[in-house]
């Protein structure tokens, strides 16, 4: 087997695991002819060896789907915390028919599911094809990512800025945990992917476009600032002199402002779709290439190569998680409204003021010509935002860690930041000490989020946008970024002396910012915060340090209960939270597969729906 094939096989198996899980979670198997039997039954038939080899789990069971007469699919499953069962890691899925036995890969397994869906729901054929294409892309791109350049050694020896970038690369490897098509960056070629994804550690020169100043909308910070040019934030004096010289030489210095553009976006969107602006002089592509960056875990957010607080966020018309990654003015306006509310909210609680660090995202520039509405398509593809990190980024006593990096195992490696954390605390690498540090991490996470929830808000708390602030061996706090997804419950805001930020929402369209009940706001803690973020960390630590995963869930539950008691909710509010977190047998689940198939590739933000899963804090052995 050659190297490329081997990597593709590994990638295929990684994504099959997530696909099988999603299908279980979203009840795709409930109307299939499936039986689950003790594993001993399969041993008698000789089917077990191709499924698991010699490593058969003690609690394993045989999952059998009777597809048609003479056609069956077998897998080995094991009981799970959030679901009735999951595919055993590293095991195979096999199809048995009159021709013998065939090992199924991710795509061939999904083809069986897709055929069933289309047979029973013919109108979903287009959505099935779209999802299959995304799966195929995910496998190919994950295979590329397996050749990453992530540095896993001597992490705390690195300077704070270098360490942070290393952690961004680590977080990029898996992207959004448990999502079977998270790695798919639809629109990137193989060469693009290996150049622009963070895990490959490539230098990326930005291109610059001079845009007529009167067509630009500016962020709040710029309207009250004497330095409205983005070059003032991003460029060295020498780079700025070179850029200004070109603007002067081309007669654009007084009428235009230079904006950085991702090189992929220039070739794949700006040139084809902005031909009129490029022809009539509204926009000019410049020769300047002096600003070089590195990608972060969000692909379109760029890090400076050297120490600096100013990072860059740009639009890219690729599709990730089934959504175009544009950057419209309305999202940045709402982000500014959110940031203002967030900063006011933090003042309501002295502990939040000490433990929550906030990026400044007030500085942005967006193409917005006369006659444009906030919800038009084309303008949202030419814009830029500066994300300024607080001083903690450069603090030698601190390290910033996107929480997704803590929940990302690297195949073939046992490396994890907890190795460094244990050494920093002079703790042996025992299961008990790993649980100790995980408990401290969970305590920080729940304490901060419960305090914010009490005020009537929750930030975007999945692992990519929530950053652990680690200081002198302690989980000091969290850094928040990407403020356009601050979720709120207005009645609780108002009782804390805060006001509705009056987000700009398109009439007739669903939104995920306002919520009618506190239970609806709690949904994001249960899903993004726990099922995606903390769960990934718990399972990664369990695998690396050989700890039962249910033990990690028990540690998480204990931290949640202690934080809930500590924060000081009103009795009724505490009872509501405790009921939904600990007492109900089921939790809400944020669906992944069904919404993508239902939308079949149409426009919009990341599609999602609601389902139910087992409550991980309610199971009898998680007391």
General description of the model:
The protein is α+β, with helices and mostly antiparallel strands and 623 residues long. The protein has 3 domains: 3-120, TATA-Binding Protein; 188-388, no CATH class; 396-614, Transferase(Phosphotransferase), domain 1, CATH 1.10.510.40. 43% of the residues lie in helices and 20% in strands. The protein has a 7-stranded antiparallel β-sheet with strand order 8-13-14-15-20-19-10. Strands 1, 2, 3, 4, 5 and 6 form a 6-stranded antiparallel β-sheet that branches. A hairpin with a 7-residue loop joins β3 (71-78) and β4 (86-87). α4 (106-120) packs antiparallel against α5, α5 (125-145) packs across α22 and α20 packs antiparallel against α21. The chain is globular. InterPro entries: Aerobactin_biosyn_IucA/IucC_N (IPR007310), IucA/IucC-like_C (IPR022770), LucA/IucC-like (IPR037455). Pfam families: FhuF, IucA_IucC. This is AcsA protein.
Describe this protein with a few key phrases.
20% strand; IucA/IucC-like_C; LucA/IucC-like; 6-stranded antiparallel beta sheet; TATA-Binding Protein; globular; 623 residues; 3 domains; 43% helix; AcsA protein; Transferase(Phosphotransferase), domain 1; plasmid; 7-stranded antiparallel beta sheet; alpha+beta; Aerobactin_biosyn_IucA/IucC_N; 27 strands
Provide a short characterization of the protein structure.
The protein has 623 residues and is α+β, with helices and mostly antiparallel strands.
List the helices and strands and how they pair.
Blueprint: H1 3-25, E1 34-38, H2 39-45, H3 48-52, E2 61-68, E3 71-78, E4 86-87, E5 93-97, E6 100-104, H4 106-120, H5 125-145, H6 160-174, E7 185-186, H7 190-196, E8 204-205, E9 207-212, E10 216-218, H8 220-223, H9 231-234, H10 237-249, E11 256-261, H11 263-273, H12 275-280, E12 283-285, E13 292-295, E14 301-304, E15 310-313, E16 316-320, E17 323-325, H13 329-346, H14 350-355, E18 356-358, E19 360-367, E20 383-388, E21 398-402, H15 403-406, H16 417-424, H17 431-455, E22 457-458, E23 466-471, E24 474-480, E25 487-488, H18 490-495, H19 518-545, H20 549-567, H21 571-583, E26 586-591, H22 593-599, E27 609-614
Parallel strand pairs: 18-24
Antiparallel strand pairs: 1-2, 2-3, 3-4, 3-5, 5-6, 7-16, 8-13, 9-11, 9-12, 10-19, 13-14, 14-15, 15-20, 16-17, 19-20, 21-23, 22-25, 23-24, 26-27
């Amino acid at each position: 087997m050659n190297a490329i094939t081997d990597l593709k096989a590994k990638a295929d198996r990684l994504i099959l695991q997530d696909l099988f899980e999603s299908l279980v979670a979203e009840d795709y198997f409930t109307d299939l002819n499936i039986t689950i039997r003790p594993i001993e039954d399969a041993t008698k038939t000789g089917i077990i060896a191709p499924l698991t080899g010699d490593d058969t789990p003690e609690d394993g069971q045989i999952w059998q789907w009777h597809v048609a007469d003479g056609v069956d699919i077998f897998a080995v499953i094991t009981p799970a915390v959030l679901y009735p069962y999951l595919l055993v890691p590293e095991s195979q899925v096999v199809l048995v028919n009159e021709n013998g036995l065939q090992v199924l890969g991710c795509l061939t397994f999904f083809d069986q599911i897709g055929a069933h869906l289309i047979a029973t729901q013919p109108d979903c054929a287009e959505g099935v094809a779209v999802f299959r294409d995304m799966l195929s892309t995910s496998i190919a791109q994950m295979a590329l990512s397996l050749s990453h350049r992530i540095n896993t050694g001597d992490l705390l020896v690195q300077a704070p800025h270098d360490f942070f970038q290393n952690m961004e690369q680590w977080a990029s490897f898996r992207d959004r945990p448990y999502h079977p098509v998270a790695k798919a960056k639809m629109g990137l070629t193989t060469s693009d992917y290996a150049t622009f994804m963070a895990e490959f550690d490539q230098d990326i020169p930005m291109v610059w476009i001079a845009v007529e100043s009167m067509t630009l909308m500016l962020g709040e910070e710029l309207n009250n600032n004497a330095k409205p040019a983005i070059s003032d934030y991003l460029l060295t004096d020498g780079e700025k002199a070179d850029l200004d010289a070109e603007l002067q030489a081309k007669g654009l210095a007084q009428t235009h402002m230079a904006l950085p553009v991702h090189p992929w976006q220039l070739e794949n969107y700006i040139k084809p779709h902005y031909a009129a602006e490029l022809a009539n002089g509204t926009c000019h592509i410049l020769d300047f290439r002096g600003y070089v960056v590195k990608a972060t875990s969000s692909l379109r957010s760029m890090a400076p190569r050297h120490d600096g607080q100013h990072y860059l966020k740009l639009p890219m018309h690729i599709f990730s998680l089934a959504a175009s990654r544009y950057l419209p003015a309305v999202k940045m306006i709402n982000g500014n409204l959110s940031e203002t509310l967030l900063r006011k909210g933090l003042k309501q609680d002295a502990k939040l003021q000490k433990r929550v660090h906030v990026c400044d995202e007030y500085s942005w520039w967006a193409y917005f010509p006369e006659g444009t509405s906030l919800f038009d398509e084309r303008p949202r593809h030419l814009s830029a935002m500066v994300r300024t990190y607080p001083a903690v980024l450069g603090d030698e006593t601190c390290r910033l860690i996107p929480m997704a990096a803590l929940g990302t195992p690297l195949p073939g490696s046992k490396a994890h930041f907890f190795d460094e954390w244990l050494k920093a605390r002079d703790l042996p690498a025992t299961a008990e000490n790993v649980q100790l540090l995980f408990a401290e991490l969970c305590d920080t996470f729940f304490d901060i989020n419960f305090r914010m929830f009490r005020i009537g808000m929750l930030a975007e708390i999945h692992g990519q946008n929530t950053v652990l602030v680690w200081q002198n061996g302690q989980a000091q706090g969290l850094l928040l970024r990407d403020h356009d997804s601050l979720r709120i419950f207005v009645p609780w805001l108002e009782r804390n002396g805060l006001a509705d930020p009056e987000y700009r929402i398109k009439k007739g369209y669903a939104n995920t910012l306002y919520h009618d009940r506190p239970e609806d706001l709690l949904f994001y803690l249960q899903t993004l915060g726990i099922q995606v973020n903390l769960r990934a960390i718990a399972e990664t630590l369990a695998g690396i340090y050989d700890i039962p995963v249910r033990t990690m869930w028990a540690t998480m539950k204990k931290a949640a209960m202690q934080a809930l008691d500590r924060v000081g909710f009103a009795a009724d509010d505490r009872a509501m939270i405790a009921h939904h977190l600990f007492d109900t047998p089921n939790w809400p689940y944020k669906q992944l597969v069904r919404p993508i198939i239902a939308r079949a590739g149409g426009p919009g933000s990341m599609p999602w729906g609601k389902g139910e899963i087992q409550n991980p804090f309610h199971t009898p052995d998680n007391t």
